[in-house]
Amino acid sequence: MSDKESRDTPAAGPAAKRKTTMFPSPDLPRGPDHVAIIMDGNGRWATARGLGRSAGHQAGAEPVRTILKAARNQGVRHLTLYTFSTENWGRSQDEIDNLFSLLVRYVDSETLELLSSGVRLRAVGDLGRLPRPARDALAAAERTTGRNDVITLTLALSYGSRAEIVSAAREIAREVKSGGLDPEAVDEDMLSGRLWTRGLPDPDLLIRTGGDKRISNFLLWQLAYAELHFTETLWPDFGEADFFAALSDFHGRQRRYGRAD
Asked: 212 an active-site residue?
């Protein structure tokens, strides 16, 4: 849902061809701690089947359930999904309305399952722009699941990383102007604590589906040292085997954080 999906006629494999993998994968270490996903390709998946874009968004709900279960059982502690970007407000009103209706239905139908599975739901972004029913549904689910601690599912909604950083900078500037903050005290930790994602650890791994190889204004600050994994698979076709392939790619890399080889 997060990007403008510029490809017109991509091939899209049927979801029925997904492979089933054990939960958890016996061939992988546990983790990583935090996985972020840009769920791209819903519209192209629908177009390839002669369907409306809303059908693609509906089909994209099932991989959320699948990947959340796989992540939880693999020991991932945080799963963050780019659900609706600030740029997505430029889409047609009908598509926006359908997206948020789908979001409300998903949250309402999944909250009890999230609660029983140890999943804490969280939403981040410029949430004041969301329709009232979406804000109410998210707030209720956050209250219901707030004590869960197995895995945190974070939905990035009305989210744009540049806007997030500007918001944090303005907050710090107001504190400095009021005399409540010494400019010399401003550091990376302070800025991180003013971001919409405050309280979340930085992602270890970013996965983007749909074939594009960019991060599209998602977690620009937080992804500084994340490993990036891109796949041609469109989001509605993305299954647990694809997820474990991304984890295998991650575990095969050496993370040096700027240190010498």
From this structure: no
